[in-house]
Amino acid sequence: MCDKILMGFDFGTNGVKALAYSTSMERVAISAYKSYPVVTPYKNQAEHNPKDWWNAFVWCVGKLLAEGTFQKDQVAALCISSHTPTLTPVREDGEPLMNGMIWADGRAVEESLELRRDYGNEIASVNPALIRPYHIISKLFWLKKHKREIYNRTAMFLDCSNYITYRLTSRFTIDRSMATNYHFYNIFEKKWDERLAKKLQINLRQFPEVCDCHEAIGCITKESAEELGLSEHTLVAAGASDTAMAALSAGIFNRYQMAYSCGTGSSVVMLQKCTEREQYKTDSRLITIGYADKDYMMNIGVMSNTGGAFKWMKEAVCDMETLCAVTLHRDVFTVMSDYVTEAPIGANGIVFLPYLAGELSPIYNPNARGVFFGLSGTSTKKEMLRAVMEGTCYAVRQNVDIVLDAQEVRPNEVQEIVATGGPCKSSAWMQMLSDILGIPVTIQENTEGAAMGDVVVAGCTAGVFSSLKEGVEKMKTIGRTYLPDSGAQREYEINYQTFCELQKCLLPCFDSHIQRQESRQK
User: Rounded to 5 degrees, what are φ and ψ at 487?
Assistant: First the structure.
């Protein structure tokens, strides 16, 4: 039986994933997952009911306790990470006044543009990240304009993870990685900026105390301990953003490493020091938020559809492959991945734009749509599958190029890209990615992503690890490294140039097409 147990919980867009590990970094329970719905009351609106977060959390804790080889008194600490930015107004007792407006909510377009126009320079001196509709500050101004009664009644504005930590400890806190999504948090001075908040007429008393991610913000209250079945002595870490925890689990600690987290969508991450304002560089096409180490920011390129595009192909055209996989007791995505290797590099001229749900970096266009280009009467399903996989890798290549350019790093200076997530199980996909990027891609055997980062942070909170780096080194399990093939890279370059040209040419078409579709429906 283990001496101490560390728990990690990662709240994603569609559900929460939970892990329990011993202090020797051995898993002591089957990972738990509980889904919850995204509420979409109107177009461009996306919300979560905060009580769904809590109920899913309670269920996951119960699952770990029921299936784990440990007792509740052994749980030393837990850490929560979550999607961000989510604006959740609550009363003094933490009771939500409305659903949380999650990262996918796009209703605050007008407010984001007004903030850029009226306060752009002042905000950039404190936090250079370009203000977008999903940012907290945009949502805050939307709420102030459209739901003034709720705005006035709000005692505290919370994100997803710190709603859960409040329910656990009765303390309002936020870690620095999450706080960087609030444009009145000064990323250089590491605090809420009182001067800017005053100019924006923002009351800082409505925002949580800022902590380091591994700081112990308290123990679980008696009421929550009884509901969860945990000990009141269990420490709670301040927590962090899911992207920060995924990057931490990948083990990146310098500007010559990159992390690639892939699932339905995907993101590429590179670190940049934020200790000196004059040396800080970014690019408006990137998302910029804080890392687990407070002295670094993450330059991030985020893509909406990666594994999601392959899943769409499965559901749209791969019924026979699905039936075959079931009959042979194989995973259908493995069968589809095998098909990809049977088609030539370049998919016989087919190029795919993976914009099935709009796109984030680098074009930030919700109207973007998926495109197959170069189809002919002889095109095959295998070639189309390969084109989809290649298209997702070309999208990654675009973002990697932008990240490297922003930080003035050449591709041959990058030590490796550490990849985590479901698509990493496909050797064809990872070799393709390495060839297209021209950079080694290393896969971790442990592919738990952000939830594993949470376990490491919980270990620091409990005093098991002296630093985040020590925890990562004990956790990190290197699997295979895929080295780029220069010959394949030259072949991919042909379709990559077409991919970039198509994207540029079709940008105005995406908008006009959606406008015409909407006018038809009226």
Answer: -65, -45
List, for residues 131-190, the tens digit of each pLDDT value: 999 999 999 999 999 999 999 999 999 999 999 999 999 999 999 999 999 999 999 999
Say if residue 477's pLDDT is above 80. no
Whether the pLDDT of residue 485 is over 90: the answer is yes
Question: Which residues, including other chains, have CB under 8 Å from residue 333's CB and lie 6 or more apart?
Answer: 310, 314, 422, 425, 426
Report how far residue 190's alpha carbon sits from residue 176's, in angstroms, rounded to the nearest whole number. 7
For residue 392, give both structure tokens: 């997702």
Short-list 312, 267, 505, 227, CA closest to 403: 267
Does the N-terminal peptide bond of residue 362 adopt cis geometry, omega within 30 degrees of 0? yes
pLDDT one-digit tens code per residue, 203-233: 999 999 999 999 999 999 999 999 999 999 9
Q: How far apart are CA 475 and CA 340, in angstroms?
A: 33
Q: Which CATH number fits domain 5-238: 3.30.420.40, 3.40.50.300, 3.90.650.10, 3.40.50.720?
A: 3.30.420.40
Domain locations in the chain as residue ranges: 5-238, 250-444+485-522
Question: In CATH terms, is domain 250-444+485-522 a member of 3.20.20.140?
Answer: no
Dist. CA 75–CA 402, nearest whole Å: 43
